Amino acid sequence: MRGRRGVCAALLGVVAVASAACSGDEPLTTPDGSPISTTVTRVAEVNIVSPDRDFSKTCLAPTAADADAGTADAARIVVTDPSLLDALCALGIGDKVTAVTAAPGSAPAYLGPQLTSVPAIGTTPDAAAVSKADADLVLTTPETVASSKPFGGVRSVTIPAGDWQEQFQAVADALGRGEAGQQRLAEFRTEAAKTGKRMDAAHSQVSLVRFGEDSETIAGMNTFAGQILGEIGVQRPGPQRVPDSFPVTSANFRDAEGDLIYVSFEGEKGQKHGEEVLLSDEWLGLGASMWKRVLAVDDAVWYDSSGLAAAWLVLNDVKGSLDGNS
């Protein structure tokens, strides 16, 4: 499954962005000065799902603390593991996060500017950073609990390992928002089921293919994307009804076939390789490709993430594309 045709180097990332003109920083304009949209909407002849997504709208409306929680509602929260930020976003209280004990740039981009702008103060923050964060609650995980030690006597809660729904509920419970957490999960499950029925998802066989630097992988049902499709009721092709992901080879190439194929790219190198494959004779010979039923999705949201906020993004992607063509 190797590409045989070249592709234009001007194609940009899967997550479409407004880009400047190739020759400089000035935006493209019409003769009358009106801006020209340069949003990337296709990659290797495949349409990108949600190319104009606005990540500033990812987070949900604020929730209120349970009346009988028994503890004061935290006003300033420090998180030691960036993966916990999704739950805070989904609970609508991202504005309470004052620091993340991680490297700069660790907050997932899909969470939007509210959380990507939170100071990342390193895994062993110094006294000045701890003082500035001024936390009254530290949320940590078993793997990152050491980063909570500089905060001394500040109340700390360790969120146990679990699937994305369990972890979300654990964060909600830790914040005294257990009832709100249950309600938000129920709302998502209800909407996912309604979407599946409305779009007749049970009669769609959807393939999930990820492109790495020099690899193609069929995503298993236990991946984040696989789980969300399951919530919606989308069916997977027979060979893909397995928990774990597996590599595509010349021997099992046809296992990538489906009524619709969602493809994604693991970084820039994954996109470069993916472009080559998507334009190869082998790929173009797939039924989904011939019928223009291949769509590109954001790998960071569909696979690298894991939380309720990301789940809503994937669900909305499916809503807008399950019946769509390349």
From TrEMBL:
<dbReference type="Pfam" id="PF01497">
    <property type="entry name" value="Peripla_BP_2"/>
</dbReference>
<comment type="similarity">
    <text>Belongs to the bacterial solute-binding protein 8 family.</text>
</comment>
<feature type="domain" description="Fe/B12 periplasmic-binding">
    <location>
        <begin position="76"/>
        <end position="326"/>
    </location>
</feature>
<protein>
    <submittedName>
        <fullName>ABC transporter substrate-binding protein</fullName>
    </submittedName>
</protein>
<dbReference type="InterPro" id="IPR002491">
    <property type="entry name" value="ABC_transptr_periplasmic_BD"/>
</dbReference>
<dbReference type="InterPro" id="IPR051313">
    <property type="entry name" value="Bact_iron-sidero_bind"/>
</dbReference>
<keyword id="KW-0813">Transport</keyword>
<keyword id="KW-0732">Signal</keyword>
<feature type="signal peptide">
    <location>
        <begin position="1"/>
        <end position="20"/>
    </location>
</feature>
